[in-house]
Each structure stands twice: as C-alpha cells, then as structure tokens.
C-alpha cells in the first residue's frame, strides 16, 4: 500500500538519504528548486499539480507545496525492537496509552530520536497510527525510531517485565520524577492529555511519577512531558 507524505523537510531528507519515493508532487505556482533538483538527480518521477489538488490531497495539512507518494510506514514487532538494542546499552522504551493526536505522536517521536529511545509502543486501539501528519511533525524521526503496534498494552507490559524491564507510569499527583531511579531497563508509559494512562495500565506499573507544576494550568502537553522525563533519564544515565 502507498502513503502520501508532505512538507519540505521530511521529503528533502528522504531524497538525500535515497529512500524510495514513487512519485513527487510539486506545486506549479511555487516550485521548490532545491527539491526539484534533488528529485531530478535521484531520477524520481515528478508531477506538477495545482494548489486545489494538493490542498485536497493533503486534507488540510500544511504541505508547503511538496508532496510524495511512498510505501506505507511499517511497524516493527516488539521482539525486533528488543533484539536491535545494542549490547551493553540500558534499554529505554516509551509506551503511549491512548494518544490519538498525530501532532503529539510526531513530536514524541522527534524527542525519542534525540534521547536515544530504543522503540515506541502504541496500542492497536484508541491510538493514532503512523501517517503523513505524524511524519511531518516528527521531521524525519518516523524513519529513525522503531515503532511497534501491540494488541494489548497490559499483556505487553507483562512480557517486558519478564524480560527485566521496569515499568514507569506518568500522571499527576504522584512521586516527583526527580526522585525516581531511571538507570534501570525502563519502559516509560505516558497517556493522553484528556485521560492519562488507563487504570489497569497504571495498576501494572512498578512505579508512577509526575512532573511538578508551579502554575495554574494543571497539565503539560504529552510530548512536552515525555521530553522532560526522557531527559531526566539521560541526566541520570550520563551525568556530567
């Protein structure tokens, strides 16, 4: 199956890395000369389209005058992610429970790439899938971070515990995240802004942490909270 992606950065990166593009679509009225030259160099088929057609195909997304047809994004199996973790590295996974906004997923993937996360686990139900919006927001991290789609988060947690992982949930009014030990093989579980992690997932966590709030707004965007927690993990694992 094919997938449409859009946005200059993600497509430019794909061209530069010689990743397969079936067709490149460029806006007639606003041709990006750099991307055009790259596409010609890589011998990628090019079609020039009008703004209405590209707007319709992007379905409201900010395409920046560039769109490409590629193979659909593939998911990894959990076991594939685990065996890909370098020997000697303390494993670090992120599990998203009920995150449905593609912008949040894209931002989380971008942070996971920066923080050296070994893989991201999504629930098959009540969760956003990999798509063009995720790709654009991730600025290429959708290509570098391994993502698995699992049928049952709680069963997956059980499997990971058997493999020596500790499960850390995140929600309001829990232990200050700076007091937790993140130097262990870790799965960081984050939930949606509206509902947080589910009660059963929380019950199956080994410990739960929260980010202290000093202001009047009582929650952070899920991608921001994930970034705060991941960089505490790095701080503890690689102290300066």
Could you characterize the architecture of this molecule?
This protein has helices at 8-16, 33-41, 51-58, 78-84, 102-115, 132-138, 141-144, 153-162, 199-204, 222-237; strands at 2-6, 23-27, 46-49, 66-71, 92-97, 119-123, 147-150, 166-176, 186-191, 207-210. Helix content is 38%, strand content 23%. It contains ten helices and ten strands. The protein starts with a strand and ends with a helix. With 240 residues, the protein is α/β, with parallel strands linked by helices. Strands 7-6-5-9-8-10 form a six-stranded parallel beta sheet, with helices on both faces. It has a four-stranded mixed beta sheet with strand order 1-4-2-3. It has two domains: 2-71, 60s Ribosomal Protein L30, Chain: A; 78-237, SPOUT methyltransferase, trefoil knot domain (Alpha/beta knot, 3-Layer(aba) Sandwich). It is elongated. The mean pLDDT is 92.
* CATH level 1 name of the largest domain: Alpha Beta
Q: What coarse outline follows from CA principal-axis ratios?
A: elongated
Classify the oligomer. Answer: single chain
Residue ranges: pLDDT <50 for 5 or more in a row? none
Largest sheet: number of strands, sense, barrel closure? 6 strands, parallel
Q: Spell the H/E element sequence.
A: EHEHEHEHEHEHHEHEEHEH
Q: What integer is the average pLDDT?
A: 92
The strand count comes to 10
Strand order of the largest sheet: 7-6-5-9-8-10
- The percentage helix is 25-40%
């Amino acid at each position: 199956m094919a997938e449409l992606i859009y946005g200059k950065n993600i497509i430019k990166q794909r061209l530069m890395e010689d990743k397969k593009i079936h067709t490149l679509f460029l806006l007639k009225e606003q041709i990006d000369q750099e991307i055009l030259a790259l596409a010609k160099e890589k011998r990628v088929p090019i079609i020039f389209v009008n703004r209405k057609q590209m707007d319709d195909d992007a379905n409201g997304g900010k395409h920046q005058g560039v769109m490409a047809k590629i193979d659909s994004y593939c998911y990894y199996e959990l076991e594939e992610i685990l065996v890909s973790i370098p020997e000697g590295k303390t494993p670090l996974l992120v599990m998203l429970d009920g995150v449905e906004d593609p912008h949040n997923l894209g931002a989380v993937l971008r942070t996971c790439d920066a923080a050296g996360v070994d893989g991201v686990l999504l629930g098959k139900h009540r969760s956003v899938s990999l798509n063009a919006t995720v790709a654009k927001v991730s600025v290429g991290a959708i290509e570098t971070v391994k993502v698995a789609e699992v049928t049952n988060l709680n069963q997956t947690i059980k499997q990971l515990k058997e493999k020596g992982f500790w499960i850390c949930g995140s929600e309001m009014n829990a232990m200050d995240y700076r007091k937790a030990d993140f130097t262990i093989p870790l799965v960081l579980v984050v939930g949606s802004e509206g509902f947080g992690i589910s009660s059963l997932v929380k019950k199956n966590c080994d410990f739960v942490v929260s980010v202290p709030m000093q202001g009047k707004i009582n929650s952070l965007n899920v991608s921001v909270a994930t970034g705060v927690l991941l960089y505490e993990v790095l701080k503890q694992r690689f102290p300066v």
